[in-house]
Amino acid sequence: MAQKRIAKEYSELQKKPLEGMKISLPSEADMHQWQILIDGPKGSPYEGGVFTLHLSLPTEYPFKPPTLSFKTKIYHPNVTNDDKGSMCLGMLRADEWKPSSKIDAVLSFAKALLLEPQADDAVEGGIAREYKENKKEFVKNAKAWTKQYAKR
Amino acid sequence: MSAQSYDTFVLAFSDPAINSADPQRARVDGNSSFEIFDDSHVQTLSSNNGEGDIEGLLYVPDLLPSDLCFHMSTSYIPINVTRLSDLPATEYLYVAIAPWISARCALSYLAAAQGATAFMFYHPDNGSSTPPPVSDPSWDLGDGGRWKAQNKFPVYAIPGLEGAIIMQELAQYNGNSSNPLIQGILAYEQFDQSDYVRLYTSFGTDGSSNLPSLWAFLLIVLGIVIVLIGTTSFSMHFFQRRHRNALRRRVERGEVDLESLGIKRSTPVSQEEIDKLPTYIYTPSSDTPKETTANPPNHSSPASSDPLPSQTFYSQSSCTICLEDFIPNEDKVRSLPCHHIYHPQCIDTHLSSRSSRCPVCMAQVLPRKNEPITYAMVRAERRIRERERRERGEDADGQWSSNLRGRFESGRRVFSMPVPHVFSGSNNEHTRSQIEMDTVGGGARAASSPLRLPNLATLEMSGAQSEDPRLPPANGYPRRALILRQATRPRPGQSLEDEETERWARMPTWRRALGTIFPGFR
């Protein structure tokens, strides 16, 4: 079932791509690993950058949630600042995941998170604090990182 | 030990000096001789060494004739009163008695009474039936109480009137058989004429009522504390129980779902339970869907007695798990109590392996009856409810009936959600997106059952879709709700029930006991 559903979702997203996102399969043989190129949304400090994300779909998909990680370094309260770049997404947690959730919703959510980080549910406490208390500094840092790591 | 009572009576006894092997003693009947029993007016001036039975033959200690008090006492003490020399030297204990003339004389008497088991004082000029209280300055010996430690016996005070009487009787019951009174008693009691008849005093120090006042005070305080703890515990239990019963009723009515709030852990459904859920052959016509024979006939499913609202049924054209469209007149579908339909092979996997909740609306599939609900769950649910209400800027009055609130909220959700086509009604729109599926599901649920929780599925989706040009921008409400939901969670991937169980296991025993006594205590 997983293969069929993933294929269906993939082809739907190819037919009707989400704005500012390019989805591809690094290996045609493995439908479970997706690569996503996402443009920094307009109006966010990430504007002008392009971020590489990796979406991994478990074999039990859709009963188990996919995992999403940033391959491009990003200055964001909800993304871990290590080589994993794990993203903290409420709906991707094992106990909150619902089989009826679709990948386009996951990706849309990730993009929305770029526009509006959720400092109250952060994985990077320092960045979250800066975002809440010194937004100017946060924007400056996020822009600098975008320039340095996410250049197109 | 302090005394509660004393008893002075006449005792006839054989002379231990003559007959020590077989001592005879007899208490002479008080009616025909003399007896004073007082159990309400004894004051304890000093409780030193007052252990065991305090009793003995009564006597007046001898003062030296050079002592000024010797002369001062003569008017109170008859000449032939019982002295130590009038008593047998062995076998018996002695209790001294003397008038309390002055502090100095009291000290003289106390010094002269060494060897006695106890001392009885009385104010000779005080005719009242009650001695002054211990705190009275008339008992002050001017040394700050040191005298108490210096004397190895307890000192008691009796009423002045009784003391004076005893003093007179002490002169009567004295001497040998030449005294006609003594002779008569000895003859009556069949004692030898050389035997003794004397006054004997014993103090009643028994029972728990003679605890020192400090102990009594502590006991009273302890009692009050216990009563306070008891009533607090009782009322806490009472209120928590009431809240819990209220929550249980709401859970049973389906107004609240503890699992979707992250309060209870999700429990997978057994195959037996899954088999009880009705299945149908999917038909696109407006006919009432027919149940398949696969459904156990002896089980009365909610759908068989209460046909599905066709609107809801046909608005779901595909299975949200495999995303495949239902093939009319061919595909078997399983309907959950929330009226969401799926391929049986899809939903069964989900229910048996993952969760007992509908993948779309998170409504419970299992009947919510007789579930254990802990006080912690009740509190968590109240916290969430209150926060939700604050989020929406409502008054925190809690006075609404839950029924009214349920109606208000489900209505509000349906009409204020930022998704326009809640009831699109078009049956076979094959390009229907996941988002719309969710919304229809939420709407249908709101219409069919007053489940009052915001449809978080819908909120998450529409929050995520705020950038989607197909949908109008979100008004901020869904995002807030999402943050709320995440903040509410105790820890990612864990229900409050797990958290509580873990916390309970980590707790020291005394904290557990405290938690049991005071259910609201954290």
From TrEMBL, chain A:
Record flagged with keyword Transmembrane helix: no
Organism in which the protein naturally occurs: Cladonia borealis
Keyword Transferase belongs to the record: yes
Domain UBC core: start-end pairs: 1-151
Keywords: ATP-binding, Nucleotide-binding, Transferase, Ubl conjugation pathway
Name of the molecule in the record: E2 ubiquitin-conjugating enzyme
SUPFAM superfamilies (UniProt xref): UBC-like
Any GO molecular function: ATP binding
Broad EC category: transferase
EC number of the protein: 2.3.2.23
InterPro entries linked to this entry: Ub_conjugating_enzyme, UBC, UBQ-conjugating_enzyme/RWD
From TrEMBL, chain B:
Biased composition (Polar residues): 282-293
Gene3D superfamilies in UniProt: Zinc/RING finger domain, C3HC4 (zinc finger) (3.30.40.10)
Segments passing through the bilayer: 214-239
Keyword annotations from UniProtKB, A to Z: Membrane, Metal-binding, Transferase, Transmembrane, Transmembrane helix, Ubl conjugation pathway, Zinc, Zinc-finger
PROSITE patterns assigned: ZF_RING_2
Entry's Gene Ontology molecular function annotations: transferase activity; zinc ion binding
RING-type domain ranges (all copies): 319-361
Region spans: Disordered: 280-311
Compartments (UniProt record): Membrane
GO CC terms, sorted: membrane
Pathway: Protein modification; protein ubiquitination
CDD domains on file: RING-H2_RNF103 (cd16473)
Superkingdom of origin: Eukaryota
SUPFAM superfamilies cross-referenced by the UniProt entry: RING/U-box
Membrane topology: Single-pass membrane protein
Compositionally biased intervals (Low complexity): 294-307
Main subcellular location of this protein, as a coarse class: membrane
Pfam families with a match to the protein in the record: zf-RING_2
PANTHER family: E3 UBIQUITIN-PROTEIN LIGASE RNF13-LIKE, RING-H2 FINGER PROTEIN ATL47-RELATED
Listed name of the protein: RING-type domain-containing protein
Native source species: Cladonia borealis
Upper taxonomic lineage: Eukaryota, Fungi, Dikarya, Ascomycota, Pezizomycotina
